[in-house]
Amino acid sequence: MSNSPVQDSYSQILFDGLPEFEPGWVWLVGGGPGDRGLLTLHAVNALRQADAIVYDALVDKALLSFARPDIIVEYAGKRGGRPSSKQKDINLRLIELAKEGKRVLRFKGGDPFIFGRGGEEALQLVEAGVPFRVVPGITAGIGGLCYAGIPATHRDINQSVTFLTGHDHTGEMPTALDWDGIAKGSQVIVMYMAMKHLHGITKKLMDAGRDPEEGAAVICNASTPRQEVLTSTLAHIADDAHNSNMEPPAIVVIGNVVKLRDGLDWLGFANGGKILVSDPLGIKS
């Protein structure tokens, strides 16, 4: 079915003036945390023009429908504990496609530059003489918390947020992090890829003096119809997540902003739940 003149007019207004995707370029594009409505207009513009798409595991495949049907589409996802594409091979494939004169879209979940290896890929493109553009996306550490009804910041609770990854390049718990410093100085901690080492991480934080009764939550499949949210405390979140069979992809948040969820679960309310009017931290008193 062809678009109506009104639809064509809106489309022209939306995309008029946005960048042209030139042959031989690679665009590193963030697809957001999961809800396709959070995709940016720049990302849609890229999808509409691309000749080749190399996409990650956390990208909603439905988003590929914005692209032309005759393009090259290749999966290059990485999932912990499963066979995955090697980063070196992904980098080389991006370069190869660009050198063929194709407009190459590297499509990633979340944001390319937040634990998405976008920086690694961009540096390889620079070394190979391939021009690139970065299209930011809403990262799960922000969007996922919002969909769970947990604000990343609240002026009466925290003035800082720390983002960290739960494993290093070897797959082990990061040893380069100053866990004592994080425990003492980070008011709210948002952790990516932390499920595997959650017991060890929470122990390190408590050993460094973090309050065991502090709020904690795990958000799985954030912003998608499969989203699950588990709230607990720092002392019990690892056991509770294990006993509840919570699995990646997941975001873990540590901080008393979690305790605001009962009054801010807008998504639960939209789906028939109740909002509890409460002041769990005595903010108003």
UniProtKB/TrEMBL annotation:
Signal peptide span: none
Occurrences of domain Tetrapyrrole methylase (ranges): 26-237
Pathway this chain belongs to: Porphyrin-containing compound metabolism; siroheme biosynthesis; precorrin-2 from uroporphyrinogen III: step 1/1; Cofactor biosynthesis; adenosylcobalamin biosynthesis; precorrin-2 from uroporphyrinogen III: step 1/1
GO biological process: cobalamin biosynthetic process; methylation; siroheme biosynthetic process
InterPro entries for this protein: 4pyrrol_Mease, 4pyrrol_Methylase_sf, 4pyrrole_Mease_sub1, 4pyrrole_Mease_sub2, CobA/CysG_C, Siro_Cobalamin_biosynth
Residue ranges the record marks as coiled coil: none
Stored CDD domains: SUMT (cd11642)
Keyword Zinc on entry: no
Keyword annotations from UniProtKB, A to Z: Cobalamin biosynthesis, Methyltransferase, Porphyrin biosynthesis, S-adenosyl-L-methionine, Transferase
E.C. numbers: 2.1.1.107
Gene3D superfamilies: Cobalt-precorrin-4 Transmethylase, Domain 1, Methyltransferase, Cobalt-precorrin-4 Transmethylase, Domain 2
Record-level Gene Ontology MF annotations: uroporphyrin-III C-methyltransferase activity
UniProt enzyme class: transferase
Record-stated family: Belongs to the precorrin methyltransferase family.
NCBIfam families for the chain: cobA_cysG_Cterm (TIGR01469), PRK06136.1 (NF004790)
Classification via PANTHER family: S-ADENOSYL-L-METHIONINE-DEPENDENT UROPORPHYRINOGEN III METHYLTRANSFERASE, CHLOROPLASTIC, SIROHEME SYNTHASE-RELATED
Protein name per Swiss-Prot or TrEMBL: uroporphyrinogen-III C-methyltransferase
Organism expressing this protein natively: Cohaesibacter marisflavi
Taxonomic lineage of the native organism: Bacteria, Pseudomonadati, Pseudomonadota, Alphaproteobacteria, Hyphomicrobiales
